[in-house]
Amino acid sequence: MTRTTAQQTTTRTTDPHPWRPTRRRLTDTLLTALAPVAACSVALGALTTWVAAGRAGDPARIEVTAGRVFLPYGDTRDTAAFFRVTNSGDEEDRLVRVESPGVGGELTLGRHRTTGAGAAYRAPVDSAAVPAHGSLTMSPHGLDVILRAGPRWELGDPVPFTLHFRRSGPVTVEAVVVSPGDVRASP
User: Fold this and answer.
1) CA end-to-end distance (rounded Å), the chain
2) Can you give the C-alpha Rg of the chain in angstroms?
3) What span, in angstroms and rounded, lies between the C-alpha atoms of 104 and 152?
4) Which of 47, 72, 124, 164 gives 79 a disulfide partner, CB atoms 3.0 to 4.6 angstroms apart?
């Protein structure tokens, strides 16, 4: 239907498909889609080559062994726990928290330090690094876990602990209650 007025002419069409594919439109559409497909193909090829060459790396693989906790002596129940943490992966990980259902109170990571005058003190730490292809060995003279002993602990009792790592997640292990002077208490 066509309607003519003095100021304008309006034409209305009844064609159900007003868009017609032309050679130029098809070429432009294909070129627009080709750029991201080519970029993804190049990235996928590079990643495949990187992985096939063995360069992709291995995530941190954490193993916790040699768990021991000192039996407190005297009037205090405060004591320390020690573990050997081994990382056989290609990535560093960090010990960020330690928990135990068999312990009363809060557990904290700490490192023993000495002042210039030779006095010893304990400094709390937020986390401890476990290097790639390396280990972290806790000891009474370095990094340890300070805790409050259970009221009925005896030598040889197992105490469950869960060590939480930033990348590897939680690892549950048992530590054995030992005497502070026991030679086997050393890693």
Assistant:
1) 96
2) 33
3) 12
4) 72
d(CA 89, CA 56): 12
**Residues 83, 163 contacting (CB under 8 angstroms):** yes
CB-based contact 69:95 (threshold 8 Å): no
What confidence score (pLDDT) does residue 58 get?
73
- Look at the alpha carbons of 122, 123, 126, 130 in this order and tell me if their dihedral is positive or negative: negative
Look at the pTM and tell me if it is higher than 0.90: no
Q: Superfamily assignment of 62-182 in CATH? A: PCu(A)C copper chaperone (2.60.40.1890)
Instruction: State pLDDT tens for residues 26-43.
Output: 788 888 888 888 888 888
**Single-letter amino acid, residue 158:** P
> What's the length of the chain?
187
For the chain, give every domain's residue range.
21-56, 62-182
